């Protein structure tokens, strides 16, 4: 099974034999065919050529027809600045420059560049009947921002009725655009509303929910599918997005995929994303792309997940990277290889941490991205650097900049998840926040005290004397005490005469002697299973 | 007196502009940053104290809340608006030299990029933390940055970009600045920018949020 059928199955949260894959090809289609962004987005032929090329090269289950959030804005009077390698940018906001809302009309199907999207959809529908076609519309909040400019943010509080009126209009535009695209042959309407990442959940519920819900309801009535695209730090709004009842939510790398998975599935909604656009797909190589895709595939799973980049692919994304992802998606063997490679790296040296931080000195490790380039990292390193000399050689400190592989291994061995982090003797002490000097000193001192206590306790031992009758072991007891005194040891002697307690030591009949050596192995932390096994082996 | 400064800080933190402002609802009908700052000056509070112990305290709290995802862009903009309303009253003291700023920060969105929301937010936060900000606008070329830095000696500079295609211009601009002014400190930021990228192009500082930049700038003049 492939294409639309497979995507439908994923949208319905049914188990799939292969995870569907939707590369968000926008102006990248022009890159594949050698035209600039402006030429591409203004021509039906170019869009058809670019998308067809992408279908041929990337073997996708679905593709967007046109990825441009300025189509509606342009028709409604926003001036655009065109660029060769990007979709155009909105540079004027009519409602901020004297135009009144009453003057704006919902676009007709023949207005502006709508015909490019509509005609391209019709031709692609004919040419590729099995591939799911995504019709993208500008989400109402993002369109409202195009129309009002950043004033919209303050007007949320200062003139809420005005914002609502604009949102109502933008929703009408969205419904109409959905209708044009669905009638032309799109299978899925994607409401792309990235600007909602800039507002809090309450504002979202007040100013976005009612409007987006209306668009999704409309698509449902047309018996087609819908998706809610967002990019940026929109983690706070995922639940509210799901409550708008789209069939799918799609997010970028700024939101952890497992977080979205949990919420979306709980709400009975499928989800998609979130391959890294810049650091991996644009700037990385094929290995990086495969590794990142594998991570997403394993995290997303075979129920309700669509593999996709976080957002519109940058124009000059190397096609080899996207092909590598496509090959991986279609080849379970390649997936196993990538998984195995990953495993090898992630299990490195983890076992050797069992005695870490047990030596006399206290070791302070600072896990950073690189203190030279990351300001918070730099402050954290400096904080430790300043404090360490106060302990006159008792404290050693090191920086682990995770740009190097061995530092990454070290980081995962210590189970560190955030950058920057300070570990004291292998235990996570400060995460992200740079500790005030006094707190850092106190934390190190606490560890020094704990070590001293540990040392004293390590010397402590016990001798258990097991005998059913007190009289039975008087002789032994005397000998033990004499031996202790002669050796000058600090050993406690305890007599146990309770039958049941004796049985616990495997002794049915006294007298018997059991020696006990206490060795405190850890305090205040939860050692991992592997570490525990190592300890138990010593017994 | 310190009570009054605390009230001013609170107005900035919650974006209470003036008495008439409906936002935030919990402060409805109360005096805002506008009235309280005026009152403080009339009562003879030192202008520098109004800035550092009132306005900046509020702005700092907003910066931290923004970083921690407790408030978002709309709330920060309200705080910035409250801040600029208060600053109007302090302007004469800036001009007379009675109030000192920590330094100058030049900012612009790089060549080819027209996005200004992020850049404006950063400007407001940096200004609200006691810096003079020179905003060069959007689509700013290397020469414009260099010229501005020559005009404002010892200024720090910040480059903003929203697009993956324009962020590559940061490298060109950073190099041009460093060539002319080897001691210049260049900070970079924007959605696609990472610390890795910052290191790669030889810039001096990156932060994912405005507050991180404020901390960096403050650390450089402390």
From TrEMBL, chain A:
<protein>
    <submittedName>
        <fullName>Thioredoxin family protein</fullName>
    </submittedName>
</protein>
<feature type="domain" description="Uroporphyrinogen decarboxylase (URO-D)">
    <location>
        <begin position="5"/>
        <end position="331"/>
    </location>
</feature>
<dbReference type="InterPro" id="IPR036249">
    <property type="entry name" value="Thioredoxin-like_sf"/>
</dbReference>
<feature type="domain" description="Thioredoxin-like fold">
    <location>
        <begin position="471"/>
        <end position="537"/>
    </location>
</feature>
<dbReference type="InterPro" id="IPR012336">
    <property type="entry name" value="Thioredoxin-like_fold"/>
</dbReference>
<dbReference type="GO" id="GO:0004853">
    <property type="term" value="F:uroporphyrinogen decarboxylase activity"/>
</dbReference>
<dbReference type="Pfam" id="PF01208">
    <property type="entry name" value="URO-D"/>
</dbReference>
<dbReference type="InterPro" id="IPR038071">
    <property type="entry name" value="UROD/MetE-like_sf"/>
</dbReference>
<dbReference type="GO" id="GO:0006779">
    <property type="term" value="P:porphyrin-containing compound biosynthetic process"/>
</dbReference>
<dbReference type="Pfam" id="PF13192">
    <property type="entry name" value="Thioredoxin_3"/>
</dbReference>
<dbReference type="InterPro" id="IPR052024">
    <property type="entry name" value="Methanogen_methyltrans"/>
</dbReference>
<dbReference type="InterPro" id="IPR000257">
    <property type="entry name" value="Uroporphyrinogen_deCOase"/>
</dbReference>
TrEMBL record, chain B:
<dbReference type="Pfam" id="PF02310">
    <property type="entry name" value="B12-binding"/>
</dbReference>
<keyword id="KW-0479">Metal-binding</keyword>
<dbReference type="InterPro" id="IPR050554">
    <property type="entry name" value="Met_Synthase/Corrinoid"/>
</dbReference>
<dbReference type="InterPro" id="IPR036724">
    <property type="entry name" value="Cobalamin-bd_sf"/>
</dbReference>
<feature type="domain" description="B12-binding N-terminal">
    <location>
        <begin position="31"/>
        <end position="102"/>
    </location>
</feature>
<dbReference type="InterPro" id="IPR006158">
    <property type="entry name" value="Cobalamin-bd"/>
</dbReference>
<dbReference type="GO" id="GO:0050667">
    <property type="term" value="P:homocysteine metabolic process"/>
</dbReference>
<dbReference type="GO" id="GO:0046872">
    <property type="term" value="F:metal ion binding"/>
</dbReference>
<dbReference type="Pfam" id="PF02607">
    <property type="entry name" value="B12-binding_2"/>
</dbReference>
<dbReference type="GO" id="GO:0046653">
    <property type="term" value="P:tetrahydrofolate metabolic process"/>
</dbReference>
<dbReference type="InterPro" id="IPR003759">
    <property type="entry name" value="Cbl-bd_cap"/>
</dbReference>
<dbReference type="GO" id="GO:0008705">
    <property type="term" value="F:methionine synthase activity"/>
</dbReference>
<dbReference type="GO" id="GO:0031419">
    <property type="term" value="F:cobalamin binding"/>
</dbReference>
<dbReference type="InterPro" id="IPR036594">
    <property type="entry name" value="Meth_synthase_dom"/>
</dbReference>
<protein>
    <submittedName>
        <fullName>Corrinoid protein</fullName>
    </submittedName>
</protein>
<feature type="domain" description="B12-binding">
    <location>
        <begin position="102"/>
        <end position="222"/>
    </location>
</feature>
<keyword id="KW-0170">Cobalt</keyword>
<dbReference type="GO" id="GO:0005829">
    <property type="term" value="C:cytosol"/>
</dbReference>
């Amino acid at each position: 099974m492939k294409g639309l059928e497979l995507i439908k199955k994923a949208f319905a949260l049914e188990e799939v034999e292969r995870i569907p894959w939707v590369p968000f090809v926008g102006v990248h289609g022009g890159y594949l065919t050698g035209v600039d962004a402006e030429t591409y987005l203004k021509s039906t032929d170019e869009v058809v050529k670019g998308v067809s090329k992408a279908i041929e090269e990337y073997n996708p289950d679905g593709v967007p027809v046109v990825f441009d959030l300025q189509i509606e804005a342009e028709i409604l009077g926003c001036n655009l600045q065109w660029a060769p390698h990007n979709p155009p940018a909105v540079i004027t906001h009519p409602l901020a420059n004297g135009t009144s809302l009453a003057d704006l009309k919902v676009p007709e199907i023949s207005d502006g560049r709508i015909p490019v999207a509509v005609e391209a959809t019709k031709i692609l529908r004919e040419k590729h009947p099995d591939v799911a076609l995504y019709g993208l519309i500008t989400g109402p909040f993002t369109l409202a921002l195009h129309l009002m400019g950043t004033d919209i943010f303050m007007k949320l509080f200062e003139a809420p009725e005005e914002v609502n009126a604009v949102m109502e209009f933008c929703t009408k535009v969205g419904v109409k655009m959905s209708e044009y695209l669905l009638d032309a042959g799109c299978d899925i309407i994607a409401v792309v509303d990235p600007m909602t990442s800039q507002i809090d959940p309450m504002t979202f519920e007040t100013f976005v929910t009612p409007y987006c819900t209306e668009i999704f309801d409309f698509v449902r009535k047309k018996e087609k599918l819908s998706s809610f695209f967002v990019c940026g730090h929109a983690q706070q709004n995922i639940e509210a997005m799901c409550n708008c009842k789209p069939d799918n939510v799609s997010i970028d790398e700024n939101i952890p995929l497992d977080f979205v998975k949990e919420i979306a599935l709980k709400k009975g909604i499928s989800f998609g994303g979130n391959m890294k656009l810049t650091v991996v797909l644009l700037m990385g190589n094929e290995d990086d792309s495969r590794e990142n895709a594998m991570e997403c595939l394993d995290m997303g799973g075979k129920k309700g997940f669509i593999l996709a980049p976080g957002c519109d692919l940058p124009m000059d994304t190397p096609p080899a990277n996207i092909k590598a992802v496509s090959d991986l998606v279609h080849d379970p063997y390649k997936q196993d290889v990538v998984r195995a490679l990953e495993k090898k790296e992630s299990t490195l040296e983890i076992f050797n941490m069992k005695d870490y931080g047990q030596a006399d000195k206290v070791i302070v490790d600072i896990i950073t991205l690189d203190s030279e380039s990351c300001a918070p990292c730099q402050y954290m390193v400096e904080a430790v650097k300043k404090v360490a000399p106060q302990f006159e050689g008792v404290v050693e400190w090191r920086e682990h900049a995770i740009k190097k592989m061995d530092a990454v291994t070290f980081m995962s061995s210590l189970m560190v998840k955030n950058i920057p982090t300070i570990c004291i003797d292998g235990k996570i002490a400060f995460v992200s926040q740079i500790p005030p000097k006094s707190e850092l000193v106190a934390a190190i001192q606490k560890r020094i005290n704990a070590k001293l206590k540990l040392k004293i306790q390590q010397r402590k031992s016990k001798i258990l004397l097991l005998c059913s009758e007190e009289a039975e072991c008087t002789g032994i007891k005397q000998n033990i005490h004499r031996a202790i005194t002669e050796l000058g040891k600090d050993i406690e002697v305890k007599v146990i005469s309770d039958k049941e307690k004796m049985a616990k030591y495997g002794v049915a009949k006294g007298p018997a002697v059991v020696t006990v050596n206490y060795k405190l192995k850890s305090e205040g932390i939860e050692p991992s299973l592997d570490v525990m096994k190592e300890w138990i082996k010593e017994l | 007196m310190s009570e009054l400064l605390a009230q001013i800080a609170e107005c900035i933190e919650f974006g209470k502009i003036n008495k008439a402002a409906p936002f935030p609802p919990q402060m409805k009908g109360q005096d805002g940053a506008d009235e309280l700052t005026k009152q403080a000056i009339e009562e003879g509070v030192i202008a520098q104290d109004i800035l550092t112990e009132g306005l900046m305290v509020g702005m700092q709290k907003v910066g931290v809340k923004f970083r921690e995802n407790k408030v978002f862009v709309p709330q920060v903009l309200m705080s910035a608006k409250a801040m600029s309303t208060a600053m109007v009253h302090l302007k004469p003291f800036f001009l007379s030299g009675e109030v000192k700023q920590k330094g100058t920060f030049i900012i612009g969105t790089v060549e080819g990029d027209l996005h200004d929301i992020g850049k404006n937010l950063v400007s407001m936060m940096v200004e609200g933390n006691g810096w003079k900000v020179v905003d060069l606008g959007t689509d700013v070329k290397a020469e414009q940055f260099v010229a501005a830095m020559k005009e404002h000696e010892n200024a720090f500079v910040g480059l903003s970009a929203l697009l993956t295609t324009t962020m590559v211009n940061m490298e060109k601009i950073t190099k041009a600045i460093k060539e002319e002014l080897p001691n210049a400190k260049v900070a970079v930021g924007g959605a696609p920018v990472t610390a890795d990228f910052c290191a790669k192009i030889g810039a001096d500082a990156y932060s994912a949020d405005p507050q991180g930049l404020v901390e960096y700038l403050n650390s450089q003049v402390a």
